[in-house]
């Protein structure tokens, strides 16, 4: 697969910064070895400096625009799923470093069937009111849902620091009322080991 010109610009600039002779010049053998935290901090500063270079900023903008133009349509909510979304909550947890940032979600699902559910394969998709994707998270596969009752699940999901679409960043600031959550269930295993499988989308 050929890399687009903007991608080559970014890769080339990063490669220049990470050349052995540059790294060795910045960290001579006579100096103390920097800690992991210092290395991460220096790397984040270098990446930020690269992103501020006009050519790189333009390349990232062009890539974001291309992804916007090829966005996948938001799927329609399922009508025959044995689970339905009752409510959800979101918080952003900032870490000391960007790689420690986390999305914190709590969601409540209701089992609409007359059988307990012991295994779930599904996703929660979050979009803005115009259908633009913000973030999608996988459901806890092993969460248990008693027949006809609700169950709450909480967890932390990693932040994608390479999300060029900007969706995850918007998720941290957008109002709860301006976010639409869509529950997409692919497969379910009931307590008696019988299964439910989503129907393939109609063409």
Structural write-up:
This protein has 203 residues and is of the alpha+beta class. 28% of the residues lie in helices and 31% in strands. It has five helices and seven strands. The chain has helices spanning 5-17, 20-26, 36-51, 54-69, 167-171; strands at 83-93, 102-111, 117-128, 133-138, 150-158, 179-190, 195-197. The strands form two sheets. It has a four-stranded antiparallel β-sheet with strand order 4-3-6-7. The protein has a three-stranded antiparallel β-sheet with strand order 1-2-5, with no helix packed on it. Strand 1 and strand 2 form a beta hairpin. The longest helix has 16 residues, at 36-51.
Q: What descriptors fit this protein?
A:
203 residues, alpha+beta, Immunoglobulin-like, 2 domains, 5 helices, 7 strands, elongated, disordered N terminus
Instruction: Give me the number of helical elements.
Output: 5
CATH architecture group name of the largest domain: Sandwich
- CA radius of gyration is 22 Å
* Total domain modules: 2
Query: Helix amount, in percent?
Result: 25-40%
CATH topology of the largest domain: Immunoglobulin-like
Give a concise summary.
The chain has helices spanning 5-17, 20-26, 36-51, 54-69, 167-171, and strands at residues 83-93, 102-111, 117-128, 133-138, 150-158, 179-190, 195-197. It folds into two domains: 5-69, no CATH class; 83-197, Sandwich (Immunoglobulin-like), CATH 2.60.40.
């Amino acid at each position: 697969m050929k890399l687009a010109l903007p991608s080559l610009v970014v890769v080339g600039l990063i490669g220049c910064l990470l050349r052995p002779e540059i790294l060795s010049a910045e960290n001579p053998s006579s100096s103390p070895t920097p800690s992991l935290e210092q290395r991460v901090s220096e790397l984040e500063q270098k990446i930020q400096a690269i992103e501020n270079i006009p050519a790189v900023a333009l390349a990232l903008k062009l890539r974001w625009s291309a992804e916007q133009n090829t966005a996948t349509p938001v799927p329609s909510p399922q009508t025959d799923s044995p689970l339905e979304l009752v409510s959800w909550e979101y918080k952003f947890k900032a870490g000391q470093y960007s790689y420690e940032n986390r999305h914190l979600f709590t969601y409540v699902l209701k089992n609409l069937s007359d059988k307990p559910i012991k295994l779930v394969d599904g996703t929660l998709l979050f979009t803005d009111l115009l259908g633009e994707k913000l973030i999608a998270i996988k459901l806890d596969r092993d969460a248990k849902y008693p027949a006809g009752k609700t169950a709450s699940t909480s967890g932390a999901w990693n932040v994608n620091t390479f999300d060029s679409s900007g969706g995850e960043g918007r998720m941290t600031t957008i109002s709860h009322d301006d976010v639409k959550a869509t529950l997409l269930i692919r497969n379910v295993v009931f307590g008696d080991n019988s299964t439910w499988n989503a129907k393939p989308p109609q063409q």
